[in-house]
Write a structure and sequence with these properties.
The complex is a heterodimer of chains A (about 375) and B (about 260). Chain A is about 25% helix and about 25% strand. Chain A is α+β, with helices and mostly antiparallel strands. Chain A has one domain: Endonuclease/exonuclease/phosphatase (Deoxyribonuclease I, Chain A), CATH 3.60.10. In chain A, a hairpin with a 4-residue loop joins β8 and β9 (about 205-210). Chain A is globular, with a radius of gyration of 22 Å. Chain B has 4 helices and 15 strands. The chains are: A alpha+beta (about 375), B mainly beta (about 260). The interface of A and B includes residues 148, 150 and 184 of A.
Chain lengths: ~375, ~260
């Protein structure tokens, strides 16, 4: 009996410590420069044979909101979507993934526990409803509560899904914006690069969602860090496929100012005294060199959509979700990219920008087949 | 300034959603009153009747409760407590765009909501200076209009208290233990459960530990913590309160309370 009492007493402080430790998770997750990504597995696992020409796709799925007029990135006033609405959209996304049948998907704006999307874990949802088997996830925006516009609980991030096993998944923190107050910055997005190894293909997959709305040099820092991460893999003799929503225009793009097309009623830009002069996220010349910011990627690596075609309208990947209602524009700029350093590059003729899927997100997926055979 | 007022009100609501003072079945003595910054104003109308209301919240969330003393059951004192609260004005203040908008403006206006509750309390003496109170009760949430489920505030304490309006009813259970540590120092530990059968996030368990220093007959200092664990639509969450987000830390709750006798 005495031993039992002693055991209880001895374990109590530990129990009490754990009890309190559990209660001390941060309100907003601020992340270190380098951290582990969250790993996921599909239920059930689908048996696959290694494909020498794996199809890679990048898609910003806009947290399953499709073209809903969300307040934050379009001229809408919707904040909290109905769960059944999100699930119906995710079903369509999953069906298209099955149809395109990629081997690797780089996803941006994936919610795993957000009030705005009915707390649907979209990584698990896609794994369980497609033939993808493994996933990793890195939060971009994780907070118990965003006390603004009724957004509430938030966990949104980047994900990589694969038919093959994943290892060494890393979340690489990108610099925060410097054009925000401390209060806004605390509750704001913490963008990152998600890097993972796919041993069966001897390949790294690297996914980025660069800043969209910064008016300072944050985008330059994000793309600079991205190039640095890719260069490290390349210099070490590694092979990679990479891409994502770079929120940057291709080099030599004719239009760099979309303020008038993205303008909502009541907004005013490009007039004297207008503050800000340009709409955040719609102007691509905020700092010297921004229009050509992606040139180093085109110079060093092989794009899925080559530099001759990347400014043609059939490869536009984005327009704000309410642009169609306002301007009958489904897409009007290219922001989403795929690159590789494989010597074989991409299988010719396999590249595609799926503009027919414009109703499923404000971004359209880009996909192409890699040539993984070594020369 | 308006935003700071919102924060103060919400913080007060969060901290005093269940007040920090013992829920004894024994009403305040006749004409005796007490009030704290985050505590309700309580007034002993007679030996068998006590009024209570939150003055800080009253103008944005009208509320009132009465405690009625009943016949002893054996050595246990018994009482019932009945009250209402009307959170609509407060919720409408929190329903707006931009910073400090806790509820999306797409749900504006929040319909008129009336919360009613009745509790049964029994207090017994475990020793000359230690008292145990057990309590149980029912809450009802009446909505005079369509209340969209997406308008919930999914935070500890708040979610389950306002959950009664989405679920229509809730069950409350609790135990308080109070005692004397020294001549002027008392303690309170308690545990409470909020059960919302069938609701998505149907349970909240709360515990608090408080030290009460009776500086004089008319003034006391209260210091403590609250632990809350709950089930939510996104899973479970545990948190020690009060919690300060930007510095990511828990700080002890401190309240001042004054009391006196109306002559």
């Amino acid at each position: 009996m005495t031993a039992r009492i002693y055991k209880v007493l001895r374990s109590s402080p530990i129990g009490l410590f754990l009890f309190f430790l559990l209660s001390c998770e941060p309100f907003v997750n601020e992340f270190s420069d380098l951290s582990e990504a969250q790993m996921y597995t599909a239920s059930p696992i689908t048996t696959v044979v290694v494909n020498n020409n794996p199809v890679v796709m990048t898609w910003n799925i806009r947290f399953g909101a499709a073209r809903s007029p969300f307040f934050g990135d379009s001229c809408g006033d919707s904040v909290i979507l109905k769960k059944e609405h999100v699930e119906a959209n995710m079903d369509k996304v999953a069906a298209k993934i099955q149809e395109i049948d990629p081997d690797i998907i780089l996803l941006q704006e994936v919610d795993i526990s957000s009030k705005r999307s009915g707390y649907v874990n979209q990584v698990q949802y896609l794994l369980d409803n497609t033939s993808m088997n493994y996933g990793c996830f890195a939060s971009v925006w994780q907070a118990d509560y965003i006390a603004s516009d009724g957004i509430g609980r938030m966990n949104m991030g980047n994900a990589i899904l694969s038919k093959y096993e994943l290892s060494e998944a890393e979340r690489i923190q990108l610099r925060l914006r410097t054009d925000q107050s401390d209060l806004v910055k605390y509750f704001y997005l913490r963008r990152n690069i998600l890097k993972v190894r796919i041993p069966e293909l001897d390949l790294y997959a690297v996914n980025i969602h660069a800043t969209a709305f910064a008016t300072d040099d944050t985008k330059q820092k994000h793309i600079g860090k991205y190039i640095e991460v890719l260069s490290e893999i390349n210099t070490a003799g590694g092979r990679f496929v990479t891409g994502g929503d770079l929120n940057s225009l291709p080099p030599d793009c004719d239009a760099i100012d979309f303020c008038e097309y993205d303008m909502c009623s009541g907004e005013n830009f490009h007039t004297s005294g207008a503050e800000p002069y340009h709409k955040e996220g719609s102007y691509f010349d905020n700092f010297p060199g921004e229009p050509e910011i992606l040139q180093p990627l085109y110079d060093a690596y092989i794009p899925a959509i080559d530099s001759v075609e990347n400014n043609s309208p059939e490869h536009f990947t984005h327009a704000p979700s309410t642009s169609y209602e306002h301007w009958e524009r489904k897409y009007d700029r290219k922001l989403d990219y795929l690159f590789t350093n494989l010597s074989g590059g991409w299988v010719q003729g396999t590249d595609s920008t799926y503009q027919s899927l414009w109703e499923l997100s404000d971004h359209m997926p880009v996909a192409a087949a890699l040539n993984t055979e070594r020369n | 300034m308006k935003n700071l007022i919102y924060i103060a009100i919400l913080s007060g609501q969060l901290c005093s959603a269940q007040n920090w003072f013992p829920h004894s079945a024994v009403p305040l003595p006749e004409k005796r009153w007490d009030v704290g910054i985050f505590q309700p104003f309580r007034f002993g109308v007679s030996e068998k009747l006590e009024y209570s209301l939150h003055p800080l919240l009253f103008f944005v969330m009208p509320n009132l409760s009465i405690k009625l003393s009943h016949k002893d059951v054996g050595s246990w004192s018994t009482a019932s407590r009945h009250g209402f609260f009307y959170p609509t004005p407060l919720l409408n203040m929190l329903t707006h765009e931009d910073k400090f908008g806790m509820i999306s403006p797409e749900f504006d206006p929040i319909p008129r909501l009336l919360g009613l509750y009745s509790d049964w309390l029994m207090t017994g003496s475990l020793s000359p200076s230690t008292y145990l109170t057990i309590k149980t009760g029912l809450s009802a949430g009446i909505s005079f209009g369509d209340l969209d489920e997406r308008s919930s505030i999914d935070l500890p304490l708040v979610y389950h208290r306002l959950g009664v309006f989405y679920n229509k009813w809730a069950l409350r259970l609790g135990v308080d233990l109070t005692g004397q540590i020294a001549k002027k120092l008392r303690f309170l530990v308690d545990g409470d459960a909020h059960v919302l059968p069938g609701f998505d996030g149907d349970l909240s368990l709360e515990h608090k530990g408080v030290l009460i220093w009776d500086k004089s007959e008319h003034f006391r200092l209260i210091c403590g913590y609250k632990f809350v664990w709950g089930r939510f639509p996104f899973g479970t969450q545990a948190r020690i309160l009060p919690y300060i987000p930007m510095i990511e830390t828990w700080v002890p709750f401190i309240d001042l309370q004054w009391s006196g006798t109306r002559i």
